[in-house]
Amino acid sequence: MAPAAAAAATAAPANPAVFRDQANKVGARNCADLYEALGQGLTRGAAFSVKTETDQAAPDAHLVRGLLGLTYDQPDLKGSAGGVVVAAPGQGGCEGYLVRVAPFQKPCAEVVSLLPAGSTAGQPLLGVWQYQLAGTQGQALMIPSGSTCVVVTLSGMTQRQ
Asked: Residue 133 is part of which domain span?
């Protein structure tokens, strides 16, 4: 990001197109649809606040990034989480990624049962459990933290133009 990054922020949005609207507001129109899809995927089931940033001088030539604070009130996930959504122009379209970091108040061995059916375990990475989520849903890293588990969810998408 350039020091003079364009930014837009919103708290507790009621607008379902908040990600697209913010991308357009900062001038990052080329990847606004992908940014929207990633943002909606990241925030499903959560109240959230998002701050969208891009390069002010050439927003359509650079990535658009959203930093998110999330709050969950679901049976298996309650409390705060954080996330990042990134979409960037590339040859023939846009590519993007989302990352969510969510603490679960139960051990990782119990959190595994919450993964989509068909998810598969990968080789542990120095005590961090990794899973390939079923279908094309991405990956999950599970980090044991005492009697709780921090789950990092990662997923990418492309948009061809």
From this structure: 5-160
